Structures are given as C-alpha cells and as structure tokens.
Amino acid sequence: MRIEDIPLSEVQRLWELNRGGRSRSPDTVRLIKGISSLRPGKALSMPVEDGQSIESAKARVENAAKTAAVSLKVVADRDNQRVLFELLQTTSD
Question: pTM for this structure?
C-alpha cells in the first residue's frame, strides 16, 4: 500500500463538492467553484438557460452557495434573463 502527502486544501475542496453524498453535474461544480472563488468587491452572473425559469436559476445559485458555505446577495435580473450574485458584506460593530 502506498500513502502520499497531499495538500489539505484538496481534501477540503473535495469534501465541499461531495457533501451530501450525491454527485453533481459539471455545471454545478463550476458554479460552486466560481462562488468559492468570489472575493469582496467582485460579482458574477449566470444566464438563465433555455427552459429554465429565473426563479429556478436563482435557487440553483442559492443552493450552490449553501454547498460552498458562502453567504451571497443574489438578485434576479428579469430584463436580461440572468442571476447576479456577490458576497454578502457583513458589518461588525
């Protein structure tokens, strides 16, 4: 048997992606990675796919954020059929 050293970040990334014991589509994995890479002052958008409602697209972003353990501000842009999101800024008093 061979045991190798690996970065702890690799274990943590796989743990987050596999939490819940279910497999995720490549699109969902990319969404989770994108959300995980967000930094303060940056925002991302996800276009609504054909046959998808804007509500289900927004829910998909919110669920991916929950999986990534990240708090987001999520807004549905109905005019342009996309979902916008950024890190939720918390203030400490």
Answer: 0.72
Contact assessment for residue 29 and residue 17, using Cβ atoms and an 8 Å cutoff: yes
Q: Is the dihedral of CA 77, 38, 27, 19 positive or negative?
A: negative
pLDDT per 10-residue tile (average), the chain, 93 residues: 84 71 79 91 93 95 92 95 90 56
Select from 51, 52, 37 the least CA-distant residue to 85: 37
How far apart are the C-alpha atoms of 58 and 31, rounded to whole Å?
12
In angstroms, how far is the first alpha carbon of the chain from the final one? 53
